Target: Core domain-containing protein
Amino acid sequence: MIKLEISPLAERRLQEKLGEQPGVIKLYYDTEGCGCDGINTLLIQDEKGQFDLPVDAGNLSFVVDQQHQIFYEDTLWLDAEENYPAFKLRSKSATYSSNVQLRDMRHLAAQ
Model:
């Protein structure tokens, strides 16, 4: 199981985006349309998907697709900067991205 340590600022931003609506945050390795490496993204979904595995992320409900789990180390850190809207995802040996976008997909499922 992946362990995701989240900075206080990153957690506050995620909680604000979740609001009062239920949702689960998915650590997603988006390879669609990419000719090379994928793009790390955070997706807010209504619920856990059929092939999603839990991520140990403290107070937040996080998952990762079982096929995408191989792209990540066992322990990750998610951080944010005060004046920058994206997140930073890193491990002990790599910076996965300093521009991880958060997309709320909950409204798309209702359409």
Summary: Residues 3-105 form a domain with the Hypothetical Protein Aq_1857; Chain: A; fold (CATH 2.60.300.12).
